[in-house]
Design brief:
Largest sheet: 2 strands, antiparallel
Distance between the termini: 45 Å
Strand content: under 5%
Helix content: over 70%
CATH architecture: Orthogonal Bundle
Number of helices: 10
Radius of gyration: 21 Å
Number of strands: 2
CATH class: Mainly Alpha
CATH superfamily: MetI-like
Shape: globular
Number of domains: 1
CATH topology: MetI-like fold
């Protein structure tokens, strides 16, 4: 019990004293996840909104594959990206292995299916209500998808926050493609795993507290967005979850 108490006190001291070893890792972790989520959000929203209104042969199979990717293990993504970026891989000429860019790519691949699937469900629900009206005015699939996505922009914003939470808590993929190199590719989740194995519990606990704080802030932000959106539109916003959208 004394060891645990001492570790917690030491962890709090690291946080409050702005310890460079801790906050450099935190800043890098936030930068990697933010970059990956911004890229994935742009691609995922556009693709998800289009899938919501498009009707083509094989759409069911595409949606089945997309929903399957929601449960894609991060270590599998890390392995695939590793093979792509290795010296003998098709993208080895880029020289991205064990770098910031490699971690961004891995998190991008993890987050894109989340943003795409949730966006598709949100926009498709609105399509059932207002899609025929826009179609009668001559709006094609692309224009209709953009208009419907804009109409649900607050719900899509919560998807972005959810995706960031998914990215920043990921460990397997960034460990494989980043290498957990001190000063270069070490992020919060990989540092926690390493410091725990080394027995440096204060630093591991400090990083864990910061990570929990980030997740707490994300959930608080989601709650604020939902409450503001419900007041503005006088109707509840859809509840966003990684396994789908629930009314």
């Amino acid at each position: 019990m004394n060891t645990f108490s001492d570790s917690v006190i030491a962890a709090l001291q690291l946080i409050t004293s702005a310890d460079p070893a801790l906050w450099v890792v935190v800043a890098r972790s936030l930068a990697v996840s933010a970059t990956a989520c911004l890229l994935a959000y742009g691609v995922g929203v556009a693709l998800g909104a289009w899938l919501a209104v498009a009707r083509f042969r094989g759409r069911g199979a595409v949606l089945l594959g997309l929903n399957t990717l929601l449960a894609l293990p991060s270590v599998v993504v890390g392995l695939v990206v590793y093979l792509l970026l290795s010296r003998t891989g098709p993208l080895g000429f880029l020289g991205w292995m064990f770098s910031f860019k490699a971690m961004v790519l891995a998190q991008f691949i993890l987050v894109v299916p989340v943003v795409t699937a949730l966006t598709r469900q949100v926009v498709e629900d609105v399509e059932r209500q207002h899609g025929e009206q826009w179609a009668s005015l001559g709006a094609g699939p692309w224009l209709r998808s953009l208009l419907l996505a804009w109409d649900e922009r607050l719900a899509l914003l919560t998807i972005g926050v959810t995706a960031f939470g998914r990215a920043i808590s990921e460990v397997g993929a960034v460990m494989i493609v980043g290498g957990n190199i001190d000063g270069f590719t070490r992020v919060m989740t990989t540092a926690i795993a390493l410091e725990t194995s080394k027995g440096d519990l204060p630093l591991a606990l400090g990083l864990g507290m910061v990570l929990l704080g980030v997740v707490l802030l994300l959930n608080a932000l989601l709650a604020v967005i939902r409450r503001w959106g419900e007041r503005r539109h006088a109707r509840p916003l859809p509840v966003i979850a990684l396994d789908g959208v629930h009314p």
